[in-house]
Write a structure and sequence with these properties.
The complex is a heterotrimer of chains A (359), B (425) and C (234). Chain A is an alpha+beta fold and 359 residues long. Chain A has helices spanning 10-23, 79-82, 118-130, 135-143, 160-163, 191-199, 208-224, 234-239, 246-249, 259-263, 309-328, 338-341, 349-357; strands spanning 5-8, 25-32, 35-40, 51-56, 59-64, 86-94, 100-103, 111-116, 145-149, 175-179, 184-188, 203-204, 270-276, 282-289, 299-300, 303-304. Classes of the chains: A alpha+beta (359), B alpha+beta (425), C alpha/beta (234).
Chain lengths: 359, 425, 234
């Protein structure tokens, strides 16, 4: 049994990347349109090394830093690839001779998700449960490779320690990287990972000190995140506070724009749209992201069960912290803080939950 | 006797025609525009320079790019910034696409049914299906170009002071449609040349267009009236606007009080030599060369400009490389700026004054159609005075065809008037 | 279906979007469309599209007549839905003017409002298709942001720190402006349930004055929409 832990140099990282790019369409964090975003990349140079994002409530800025993996999770999520915002589902074309053709596209990509952090990996576990019978998702997911990375530091909006979804990555990866002084710790999590690793040159067995160093860093990281609320009995606490006047107050601030659900790595709601041409020659189905903040989201045969903004906001919070525990045995807020950063109104979910549970 | 023809059809906007005759002798023809003025100029006063391109675009739904580009030139003139070569070339591309869009719309969907004596292009489809399908293709190509650069075909969104808000990654999807369009446009020109057009001469009017040193005029240039070269800043010294009590649109005259014509015929007259190679070759082959003073031949000249525009657009699309730049920062300062370009229908002139915050203190816009109105009336008078009976049925078609020769766009002609309007309860 | 297309006060852009339907137009019976046809008949219209706003008594009468003749009346674009850019001249700032421009719904019942300045031709197609098969046309009724994120755009309010009206604007255009790196200027008009209070709060937080925010809404080509009218009394 070969050792499961190695250390590689930056050269080795380059070598690993080359190996990956031979068999996979690599998706990694890259700088685009003033932010760090998951996108398809061609070389290691495209990765946002040396950048980091400064994030606050409704705030985002890019800065330089001297780590390789100096940034945290990117602005967008893996949803963009496995459950895209707009996906063409099927098309039926009627030819002139009345013959009909059906088209059901399959994605050509074989993804390697490079640089996945703990929060996003945990989110993926939830999405795996949601879409366990969805052929498009399953097909892509089964063919994909995960290169996970442990964070070096926490941002202001990070709270994976509260939701217990990080910061340390323990499972769900093919390979796991942790940045050290001038090396990277490389751990294997699967057979596919092992096969890859075997081909990487320039690798050594790490010293005990170097392994210790990883744990020391992760402990430090835990301390960087503020304990704004705690998850103890959160479901009961929220359920017993459904009629607080607080829920009404949120209407003063929440725009109901749905930005939070769009950037959330576990918000999976979708709608299916149909479009036909006037000549009846073509009809199309598209699957698109929906949002529980959309005014008519909960309309059932013209009866809207969540007509008020406050009821929609409450539903979102409850879905994350209560319903999800019932459905998936885990809270579906993974503490990535994207909803805080990208809320134009600057609403901070941590503070809102705290307000509810402490009143 | 006054004979009134209400609701002229197949023109863009609302207009009537009044024919005043004595003893069956034509005295006067009044082309009265009934479109409600929307007072766009008034509306701009006190607002920021930033809203000019968007709001002035709404003067016309057929040539919004013309308004945006002329406004941008004026704003950039006032604040002393120069767009880069790449930006100018892209602006030219989107403008050429609008020429194609506007000319195709007018020529095939509005004007051509006249020559087949049918009521609309829908009826024409039964006769000339292939021809109209080609025209649809040209219009479609033009729409795709504007969409590619500006997000949507009508009132595009990326044109901002100092450049573009965003550049497309590549224009290669446009190249094949443009190649096909060039072929189609050439075929259509040849087809149109085989048709017969009524004889008519409007030699008494002056042609006024821009002149550009290197190009067929479009984005910029100096004004030329056949004799004099006039700087865009002196526009007001040479061309006057007069009110017509029966119309909600002003009429423009030269300072000598004469009607003048702007648009494709004027550009053709003054810049024939600078047409694209294919366009010039085709025109020469079919003997369509200046001087042409018969407005009934304007469809041919419009078609020629379509060939020219497609050929140039193809060239620009082929040479496109996505610029690596951000829009230039713009600092508003007190001052004034003037913009002048060749809209599909002719010279469009914008004049603004700004305060130190960049708020608008003065606006004046002169549109192509308002400049052509006096000539349209003159042409109508000349054309109708040859008619024997002055009954509506007999002259309606003749009059409408003459008006369509000039491609008037009436919402554009009326936006600026200050008149009292009946208040609604 | 028998169609009529009418124009009141407007730029004319929306009605030409109907031509985008191309050849499938031939299958429709267009009885009234003065801008493209010389033969115009008053008939009972299955669908009447009306572009433009009402600015005088003649237009009001014409509209009433159209309503009588139309089984299904569609307000085509921002002028017909909200009164258009010309309608904002009643705002306090421009008090000196005597110009009035009203949306159709101020005078007649409107069966469907197609948003946008200009409307999207796909929406016209969807309308005609649905009506021809006897179903209800579907259009987005949620804020633009949802559509914008589907396109993969980051929020410009956060990354570019510019005000974007998308948060209170109805989706449907395909998030064109944010996709071109500029804030939405609201040409699709306010979304149902637009939270103006929260929007002002949010824009003030970005450093704009209340007056400036109001002006930006006025310039949205839908400044006189029913939902925005409360702003005129301030």
């Amino acid at each position: 049994m070969p050792a499961k832990k190695y250390k590689i140099t930056p050269k080795g990282l380059e070598n690993l990347f080359d190996l990956l790019s031979r068999n996979y369409n690599i998706v990694g964090p890259s700088v685009e349109k003033r932010l760090i975003k998951f996108k398809q990349v061609k070389s290691l140079d495209d990765i946002a090394f040396g950048f980091k994002s400064i994030e606050g409530a409704g705030f985002y800025n890019l800065e330089r830093d001297n780590w390789w993996f100096s940034y945290n999770r990117p602005a967008n999520t893996l949803k963009d690839f496995l459950h895209p915002g707009e996906r063409f589902l099927t098309e039926i074309i009627k030819e002139d001779n009345e013959e009909k053709t059906f088209q059901v596209p399959r994605s050509p990509w074989q993804y390697c998700f490079f640089d996945i952090r703990s929060c996003d990996l945990q989110a993926l576990f939830i999405m795996d449960k949601v879409f366990k019978k969805e052929p498009f998702y399953l097909d892509l997911r089964n063919r994909s490779l995960i290169i996970a990375v442990n964070c070096n530091h926490a941002m202001e909006n990070c709270f994976c320690t509260i939701t217990k979804t990080g910061p340390e990555i323990r499972k769900g990866f093919d390979l796991l990287l942790t940045e050290g002084e001038d090396y990277f710790l490389l751990e294997v999590g699967s057979k596919k990972g092992q096969i890859l690793l075997d081909q990487v040159s320039d690798k050594r067995v790490p010293s005990r000190g170097e392994l210790e160093d990883k744990n020391r860093r992760l402990r430090m990281l835990k301390g960087e995140m503020a304990d704004k609320f705690n998850m103890e009995n959160i479901a009961e606490k929220l359920l017993s506070r459904l009629n607080l006047t607080y829920w009404k107050e949120i209407e003063e601030r929440c725009l109901s724009c749905g930005n939070c659900t769009s950037v959330c790595p576990t918000c999976f709601c979708y709608d299916i749209l149909e479009k036909s041409s006037l000549s009846f020659a073509k009809t199309q189905r598209t699957i698109v992201w929906d949002s529980c903040f959309s005014p008519d989201f909960a309309t059932i045969n013209r009866f809207n069960i969540r007509g008020s903004l406050s009821s929609r906001y409450r539903h979102w919070i409850l879905h994350k912290f209560v319903y999800s525990t019932l459905h998936f045995k885990r809270c579906s807020c993974v503490g990535c803080g994207r909803c805080i950063t990208f809320c134009p109104a600057g609403i901070d979910i941590r503070e809102e939950v705290l307000k509810v549970v402490s009143s | 006797m006054t004979n009134k023809i209400d609701f002229l059809t197949r023109v863009s906007g609302l207009a009537n025609l009044e024919i005043i005759a004595e003893d069956n002798l034509l005295k006067e023809v009044r082309f009265s525009v009934r479109e409600t003025p929307r007072l766009i100029e008034k509306l701009l006063l006190g607002r920021s320079y930033k809203v000019i391109p968007e709001i002035t675009a709404r003067i016309c739904g057929i040539c919004p790019v013309a308004y945006q580009l002329t406004a941008l030139q004026a704003i950039e003139d006032a604040f002393g910034i120069k767009p880069t070569k790449e930006d100018l070339s892209l602006r030219k591309l989107i403008y050429l696409a609008e020429w194609i869009y506007s000319h195709t719309l007018h020529l095939f969907f509005v004007h051509l049914p006249d020559y087949y004596k049918v009521n609309s292009f829908l009826e024409l489809f039964q006769i000339e299906r292939e021809l109209l399908e080609k025209a649809f293709f040209l219009r479609e190509t033009a729409c795709r170009i504007i969409e590619k650069l500006g997000g949507r075909a009508i009132h595009p969104l990326s044109l901002i002071p100092g450049g573009f808000s965003s550049y497309p990654d590549s224009l290669s999807p446009l190249i094949d449609p443009l190649r096909n369009s060039l072929k189609i446009a050439e075929e259509l020109f040849t087809k149109l040349c085989s048709m017969t057009f009524p004889e008519f001469s409007l030699s008494e009017v002056q042609f006024v267009s821009l002149l550009d040193e290197d190009d067929y005029p479009i984005l910029d240039g100096i004004i030329y009236d056949g004799k004099r070269k006039i700087d865009k800043r002196s526009f007001r010294d040479y061309f006057l606007e007069v009110e017509r009590p029966y119309s909600t649109a002003n009429h423009s005259l030269t300072k000598e009080g004469k009607p003048y014509v702007v648009g494709p015929m004027a550009r053709f007259e003054h810049a024939f030599e600078k047409l694209s190679p294919r366009a010039k070759e085709l025109a020469t082959k079919h003997g369509i060369i200046p001087p042409v003073d018969n407005p009934f031949l304007s469809p041919l000249i419009r078609m020629l400009e379509i060939v020219h525009s497609v050929e140039l657009a193809l060239e620009i699309a082929k040479g496109y490389i996505k610029p690596k730049k951000v829009p230039q920062e713009l600092k508003p300062s007190e001052g004034e700026g003037i913009g002048i370009t060749e809209a599909p229908r002719g010279i469009l002139w914008h004049h603004y004054k700004f305060d130190s915050q960049g708020l608008i203190t003065h606006v004046n816009i002169v549109t192509p159609t308002s400049q052509n109105l006096a000539s349209i009336e003159l042409a109508l008078f000349k054309s109708l005075s040859k008619e024997k009976g002055l009954e509506e049925a007999s002259i309606r078609n003749r009059a409408e065809t003459m008006i369509r020769n000039f491609d008037p766009c009436l919402p554009c002609a009326t936006h600026f008037l200050e008149i009292s309007i009946k208040k609604l309860d | 279906m028998i169609l009529g297309v009418f124009k009141l006060t407007s730029c004319g852009g929306c009605q030409y979007s109907i031509l985008d339907l191309g050849k499938s137009l031939l299958e429709q019976k267009i009885f009234y469309f003065t801008e493209i046809s010389s033969s115009n008949l008053w008939h009972t219209f299955d669908v009447a599209f009306v572009e433009g706003s009402v600015t005088n008594d003649d237009e009001k009468e014409l509209l009433l007549k159209i309503r009588q003749k139309a089984k299904f009346l569609v307000a085509l674009g921002a002028c017909a839905v909200s009164g258009g850019i010309q309608a904002i001249q009643r705002s306090k700032k421009d008090k000196g003017l005597i110009f009035y421009s009203y949306p159709l719904s101020d005078f007649v019942s409107v069966d469907l409002e197609l948003r946008g300045c200009p409307v999207k031709s796909e929406h016209i197609e969807e309308t005609l298709f649905s009506l021809s098969v006897g179903s209800v046309p579907y259009f987005p009724d949620y804020p633009l942001c949802i559509e914008c994120k589907r396109k993969g755009n980051p929020c410009l309010m956060i990354t570019h720190k510019i005000l974007c009206l998308g948060v209170i604007t109805q989706g449907g255009c395909g998030a064109l402006c944010p996709s071109l790196n500029r804030g939405c200027y609201g040409c699709f008009g306010p979304v149902k349930g637009a939270n103006l209070k929260a929007f002002f709060r949010c824009a003030l937080r970005m450093g704009l004055t209340e007056e400036k925010i109001r002006e930006i809404i006025m310039n949205s080509f839908n400044g006189y929409h029913q939902i925005f009218r409360e702003l005129y009394d301030k």
